[in-house]
Please model this.
Amino acid sequence: MMNMELITTAHWDDSLWASIEPVYREAFPSGAKPERILRSMLDREIAYLHAGLSDGQVTAMAVTGIVPEGNNKRLIIDYLAVSEEMRGKGAGTSFLELIIDWAVKDHGVQGVIIEAESGDSETHNRRIHFWEKNGFILTPYVHQYIWVPEPYQAMLKPLDQHITVQDNGESLFRYINKFHSIAYRPSAKKK
Model:
């Protein structure tokens, strides 16, 4: 495992964001949530912002959320990115392991869910390979959102032997959609 330090916050921090934002923008030049939405997600206490530091520099970032469903908790990885110069060196795997360890120890999650763009381009295949190499299972169900043009597929990493996908992956979008619906819900006006 690469030597990396994990910083996790549930509260918006302008200075931390300033160091994370370049990695975020580099990895997601289009399709990224605006800063105001990310800030709102943390203000509502539904998301966490993670930074991976190598030699004191932010080289990885992630936005996650914990979605409870009865006695089960799933970690949703909304965004995960590694700086271009660190890709292919094990930084993504090390960062992912740190986040999963945090989620298990601090929140008792039993599984991790991500959604990946569905497609057969080299970029899509490389992304899917990264997640599969890290223990995620690609499900066949393709979900089409009404507000974005790309279709998506869910991937699950079970952390408990009882966690499985009982269908073609459509049920995983119940967790993802629950997280997204809270993230995009208009916030109540503060008095």
Q: What stands out?
A: Residues 91-107 form the longest helix (17 residues).
